[in-house]
Every structure is written in structure tokens, then in C-alpha cells.
Design goal:
Layout (H helix, E strand, L loop, with lengths): L6 H14 L11 H39 L5 H10 L6 H10 L1 H11 L1
Helix pairs in contact: 1-2, 2-4, 4-5
Length: 114
């Protein structure tokens, strides 16, 4: 029985990877083996950093809330503890936005928990 190869699928796979490598520098964009490795590594970084982005934003929100709370003489941990004790369910994203863009609303929340 003759050997069977699926050249159409093979070519399609390579075209897909080379299309993903478009814009890379040097041989990374047009040499199959180099491009495949570069795209695989890029996909790993993209996967990892989609998760790291959530951490980074949470840290940013905490810094902003802390800065806003300290203007009124309260630390971040005290503020969050009092929010929980008073059953105010605002997440960090909203609190950070209020601290940055609407200080009066943030001050009203702070006075309510004091």
C-alpha cells in the first residue's frame, strides 16, 4: 500500500502559524521551524499574562483606594474592614474609580463607615 500524506492539511497548518508570526523580526516571520517556536512561546506568554493582568489591576485598585482613604486618615485595611462590617458591597474596581474620579462620593462612603 502506498504511503499516504495529507499535504493540504500540512500546508494549512504551516500557513496558519506563519500568518500568526507576521510582523516578527528576521527569520522568526518566514522560516517554519523558527516561526513555530516563536509563535508557541508567544502563545504561552499571552496565556500567562491574561492571568497576570488580573493581579496587576487588583494591585493598582488597592493602591488607589489606599491613597484615597489615607487622605481622610484611614488605612486601606481599616477601610476595607469597616466596609465589610457595615455590609457595603462595593468591589475594589468601583472603589478605586470613585477614589480617582469622584472624591466626594468616596468621601461620603468613608464618612458612612467611620
Amino acid at each position: 500500500m502506498p504511503r499516504s500524506v495529507n499535504s493540504v492539511a500540512k500546508r494549512a497548518r504551516r500557513k496558519k502559524v506563519l500568518k500568526q508570526a507576521k510582523g516578527y523580526f528576521g527569520r522568526r516571520k518566514n522560516v517554519w521551524t523558527v516561526a513555530k517556536n516563536a509563535v508557541d512561546k508567544a502563545m504561552l506568554y499571552a496565556y500567562r499574562d491574561r492571568r497576570n493582568k488580573k493581579r496587576t489591576f487588583r494591585a493598582l485598585w488597592i493602591v488607589r483606594i489606599n491613597a484615597g482613604a489615607r487622605q481622610y486618615g484611614m488605612s486601606y485595611s481599616q477601610f476595607m474592614g469597616k466596609l465589610k462590617a457595615n455590609n457595603i458591597d462595593l468591589n475594589r474596581k468601583v472603589l478605586a474609580d470613585l477614589a480617582m474620579n469622584d472624591p466626594k462620593a468616596f468621601e461620603a462612603i468613608l464618612k458612612k463607615v467611620k
